[in-house]
Specification:
Largest sheet: 5 strands, antiparallel
CATH topology of the largest domain: Triger factor/SurA peptide-binding fold
Strand content: 5-15%
Helix content: 40-55%
CATH class of the largest domain: Mainly Alpha
Order of helices and strands: HEEHHHHHHHEHHEEHEEHE
Shape: elongated
Distance between the termini: 39 Å
Number of strands: 8
Structural class: alpha+beta
Number of domains: 2
CATH superfamily of the largest domain: Porin chaperone SurA, peptide-binding domain
Number of helices: 12
Length: about 325
């Protein structure tokens, strides 16, 4: 399962704000208040729950959230989790832990370090895990129940392209690339001179090799080098910078060498042909339309279950 884009952005903010030794801890009350503030379908929402989520939101947004906004957020999450359970969407604790660990990995830290960073701010890891659970189940539920409604047809894409002044049949710059990654290995800890030597070697090979067959024959027998299996990507799948490199590379030739942690890497371009599968602009528009449909569907669904819910505030 995956989390929403919005939450991913918040997590990245944690990395910026929450480097363990430079974050100054927020105030943590000596006693956890368990005063019930609101009952949601018989489930209590306490002052402590609100306090914890307020700290997490402050950490990610860098501003103090309104108390009622936090309450509404927590009410919605309880409703999402309960609704998801009705349809059998109920991730296990290990699923949540795995997602928590993946989040830590994207921050280039391990789960224990993420936990310590949160705790240094007076935030329990379960506070973040609760939010992860709600996002996971709701995304899966909405996409599962409303799969047909969320589909983006070519007419939708063409209509949007026309609205932007484009030609709905335009397929310019749409190519399918067949390529094989190559690496000239440089041992870890090798001096800069080793990289320079391999770069010169790579440039010599670029001038010499003129087909994928030659590249396979050469690199499969070359010491401290590797050529990987061919992969096929379209223009829509490749970043603009790499597209430019591939478009400037003759078929059968190698791309300019690039120094990486493994050594000196290149790509041999085996084929490049026009395709009508997709273009970068069409893919971008399709993803934007999907996000809009998802947002509208999600909001309508949540409004529906909110109206049917029993939400009782304490006096």
């Amino acid at each position: 399962m995956t989390m929403t884009t919005t939450f991913t952005s918040c997590v990245r903010a944690i990395l910026v704000a929450c480097v363990a030794t430079i974050c100054s801890p927020l105030y943590v009350s000596p006693a956890h208040s368990q005063t019930v503030v609101v009952m949601v379908n018989g489930e209590p929402l306490t002052d402590f729950d609100i306090e914890q989520r307020s700290k997490l939101d402050f950490l990610t947004a860098h501003k103090q959230p309104a108390r009622q906004d936090i309450i509404n957020q927590l009410i919605d999450e309880k409703l999402k989790i309960k609704e998801a359970k009705k349809f059998g969407v109920d991730p296990s604790g290990s699923d949540i832990d795995e997602s928590y660990g993946q989040m830590a990995g994207r921050m280039r830290i391990n789960p224990d370090q993420l936990t310590k960073s949160l705790e240094s701010q007076g935030i329990r890891p379960d506070t973040l895990k609760s939010r992860i659970r709600a996002d996971m189940v709701w995304t899966a539920l909405v996409r599962g129940r409303y799969k047909e409604r969320l589909q983006v047809g070519e007419r939708d894409v063409n209509r949007q392209i026309k609205a932007q002044g484009g030609d709905d049949t335009q397929k310019a710059d749409a190519f399918e690339y067949k390529m094989q990654p190559i690496v000239l290995i440089v041992p870890k800890g090798a001096p800069p001179a080793s990289f320079e030597s391999r770069q010169k070697e790579a440039e010599t090979l670029r001038a010499r090799l003129q087909s994928c067959d030659e590249a396979n024959s050469y690199f499969k027998s070359m010491p401290n080098a590797a050529i990987r299996e061919a992969v096929v990507k379209t223009s829509a799948d490749i970043p603009p910078v790499l597209r430019k490199v591939l478009d400037d590379t003759p078929i059968g030739h190698l791309t300019p060498p690039e120094v990486t942690k493994q050594g000196v890497e290149m790509v041999v371009l085996c084929d490049r042909k026009p395709t009508t599968v997709d273009t970068p602009i069409r893919k971008e528009i399709r993803e934007k339309i999907y996000a809009q449909k998802y947002e509208a569907t999600s909001k309508a669904y949540l409004d529906e279950i909110r109206k049917a819910a029993m939400i009782e505030y304490s006096k």
